[in-house]
């Protein structure tokens, strides 16, 4: 696929910005707004049900798997699970996803902080801020975050990420996606998929995607795409 001038400019800007991201993350010390104090390693409370993945043939990195509906319902995080909701956009699909994340956090009593992107110039700084909070998991919602996350996540392999309603085209092992037919944006260079449908972003489907995605991360099933039915 030919690389357009716009795409080249976008990639150059991201490559330049990632240097600032790495330097900022490396140089940031403790602050009153992070979780740098002692914290028990998070664990999964409850087991995945039959059909989430094939236990005898676990998915390879970057694989797409379709877990059996409800096979994640018994899983929740251990106490004091630290999560950052990284959000970009005020469109209805993004609002629906963000609401699903906050609702899930309330249900499982996770500690939740929100980092919201103000404009395109704030994409990299917002990701930097989310990483510097040192959460157990960063949950990303909003298509505008996909391209910068593709670079940032590869430079922070010790930080777990979950994208909901979208996916990074070539994820590293620390990036898991939970989406569905109608919600699988993979970056500006690839554009919106033909099946993209804002109406598919229902509260119920978004909630299932969040729960399934977190369950996968808690059980070490990362770097894959979960296709929610």
Secondary structure elements and pairings:
Elements: H1 5-27, E1 44-45, E2 64-65, E3 76-77, E4 82-87, H2 92-108, E5 111-116, H3 123-132, E6 137-141, H4 146-152, E7 161-164, E8 175-179, H5 203-218, E9 225-227
Parallel strand pairs: 2-9, 4-5, 4-6, 6-7, 7-8, 8-9
Antiparallel strand pairs: 1-3
Helix pairs in contact: 1-3, 1-4, 2-5
Structure, described:
This protein is α/β, with parallel strands linked by helices. 32% of the residues lie in helices and 15% in strands. It has a single domain (44-227), classed as Response regulator (Rossmann fold). It is built from 5 helices and 9 strands; from the N terminus they run H-E-E-E-E-H-E-H-E-H-E-E-H-E. Strands 2-9-8-7-6-4-5 form a 7-stranded parallel β-sheet, sandwiched between helices. It has a two-stranded antiparallel ribbon with strand order 1-3. Residues 18-32 have low confidence and may be disordered.
Give the domain tally: 1
Shape: globular
Q: Describe the sheet with the most strands.
A: 7 strands, parallel
**Total number of beta strands:** 9
Overall helicity: 25-40%
Q: What is the H/E order?
A: HEEEEHEHEHEEHE
Strand order of the largest sheet: 2-9-8-7-6-4-5
Which structural class should the secondary elements be placed in? alpha/beta
Q: What is the CATH homology-level superfamily? A: Response regulator
Give the radius of gyration.
17 Å
CATH topological fold name: Rossmann fold
Number of helical runs? 5
Poorly predicted runs are 18-32
Q: Whole-number average pLDDT? A: 88
- Taking the alpha carbons of the first and last residues, their distance comes to 30 Å
Strand content: 15-25%
* CATH class identity: Alpha Beta
The CATH architecture name reads 3-Layer(aba) Sandwich
